[in-house]
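We modelled the chain as a single entity of 790 amino acids. Its sequence is:
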Amino acid sequence: MSLLFKNLRIHQIFGANTDVGKTILTTALVRASATLKNEVFYLKPISTGAIQDADDEHVMRHSSTFKDRIHAHCLYRFHVPVSPHLAAQLAAGDESQKIVSDNTFINSISSYVQRCASSANGPAHMYVETAGGVHSPTLSGVTQLDCYRPLFLPTILIGDSRLGGISATISAYESLLLRGYIVDAILLFREDYYRNSEFLTPYFAERGIKVTAIDAPPPKASDASENFASTERYYESLDILPTVLDLNTRHTQRLAELASMPRRSLDAFWWPFVQHGLVKGEKDVTVIDSASSDFFSVYDAQTPPEISSLKPQLDGSASWWTQAFGHAHPALTLAAARASGRYGHVMFPQATHAPALQLAERLLDGPGKGWASRVFFSDDGSTGMEIALKMALRAFSVREGLGGKERKNLGVLGLKGSYHGDTIGAMDACAEEGVYTCEWHNAKGYWLDPPTISIQQGRPVITLPPALATSEALFEPAESDSESWVYDVTGRMGTPLAEIYHGYISRTLEGLKSARGVPRLAALVLEPLVMGAGGMIFVDPLFQRVLVDVVRERDPASPDTPGSWRGLPVIYDEVFVGLYRLGMQSTIPLLGAAPDISVNAKILTGGLVPLAATLASDSIFRAFYSTEKAEALLHGHSYTAHALGCEVANETMSLIEKEARSEAWLAAQARWEAPSTPSSVWSFWDPDFVRAVSHLDTVAEVMALGTVLSIKVKDSQGGYVSHSAQTLLHSIKECSDGSLPSEAPQFSVHFRTLGNVAYFMTSLNTAPETIRLLENKIWNALGTDTSNKT
């Protein structure tokens, strides 16, 4: 949605307050631009009050000398002289009027700007003047700063020259800054008594912004013709051309910077998870100029001058699974600023601060409710898992009375395809066969090949590994038309398949006691329901529940103290799946078995800042409890319990609580016929779409839970190194691929694949209409006419 043209330099005019002279100074800018023989466009998106007092009318009245070059327009005009949101409400009282949504409003501005760019004869300038102050409401009631943010137009701030204007101007600037706006210039009237410009000029010079003080206009004359003449003389006396030239320079510099970034990036970066030998050149580098909601704004150097060089690109993987409420959410940004201003970063050992304490208590009352007693904070999911492993191995060693070399030869029990992060310890908790490896990787443990769940040919299917596939009848659940049946773990306990799982796991664990090359198992480590990085592997939850039960049954010597871990300490890696990524706060209610340790990250801070939390039961905590310092958990990070991260996490959890009651969530749950219970399964993706895709000849299987959609492409090679999914879905990287209706917003999709598995992920508040458009693009890319998707 962001707009940046080579032939049209655009600036948006914000006011530090109402009645600070926005229209007067904007008119001066329009006239100065016209003196350069540029075509000039002036847009007033919203106007309230009498037509003769309208700002666009004022611009045209005082541009008669350049009338062949200046075009003024207003999109939404209301005749009652009140705030735009009130004017819209009053107009909506007439049945012929409806309050315009923010999306419609922004799309109207975008369309008009693009028409101006297309019609411009050569280089042109454009000024978009807002109404009132930076936080004055728009038609919907949302403040202007938030409403206009998707357009991301560079800004001119009109400062306040009156009493209190220094504070108002700086506050307005900081409000713009907190939302990421680029402030190119500050203009205000020169005032000889308060002399605000004298203070503001050096203040903003330190911040790289030039302040220009302009003589104030003469008092309004009672006679209309006399007033017009004096105002014309005023405009003719102003020398604002240097400001216009500086704006031109900044526009040119921004374009040059964007154009240079691909080459400079190729020369500077070592990207994660990228084989640089496959990067063909600058065209393979995605230049992200800004991000808002679910969209990146990416630079395209190949666009002609009259087309915006910035294109909307849907963040189809929720930025590596972190986004909860889209990019640049103002509430999260303000939370970070709030904590930064209050704390910065403070050391945490044997200390406390409100954001950390509040977050710990929320986590213990949320995903840790009923089983966890402590929260250990760290930086990210991988380090959170390192801490979980340290906790589990120590707890096992203490209970078993191990010491010395015995403690060094411990391993974990897990599932093939699991992944717990890229730090060495987390890597060692995964099987050697994965591609996430390095020279020091030393897989320590044993990994079972799990049964998986997928939708094939419109029906949920349980695929058993070779060691378990003893009967064709076991490949499909008895109620094969119901995805919810597969996830009804309690209802499936005691079934023949559960007994087979139990026997298989018990025999395997018994055999491991005498197996060579397998270390002593000291913990069970699981990614509940979905193993993400391993290829979006949807594991049969019944198998995971039975696995937990068998592990805990196999230790009759464990104490009977309520809450004590039994068999092996059980770790749930909920870094990816937790906090509603799969439509549920935690996988624990669905599995019906609580862990002894769990880890949350990713969505915890809404994708704004890194933070992880490792939750532990009291029995795990007690393994470290002593009067000896050496027996403590001697693990920590410089940014442990980072106040910014904790405050943002608290805000994220508050937003999630509100979103969980939203109409969009309730409608999605209704489509999947899922009651709103902690263990219900549902998805934001349309069930008819998911089942239809599963019938396609190019598709092996599909799965959807919560925000996640996974499509496995048929490929004889398969595996992580395959390019089949990337190749098949390549067309969705194009902005206009013919898959969307002509009236729908056009966008490309940024997505990543795991070999022959393509996955897509929404935020928790992605608009349903955006998801439907993305479904159309995916459907079209898979090579089938959309008319067959029923």
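As a brief sanity check on the tokenised model: The chain has three domains: 8-240, 371-644, 663-788. Residues 472-479, 785-790 have pLDDT under 50 and may be disordered.
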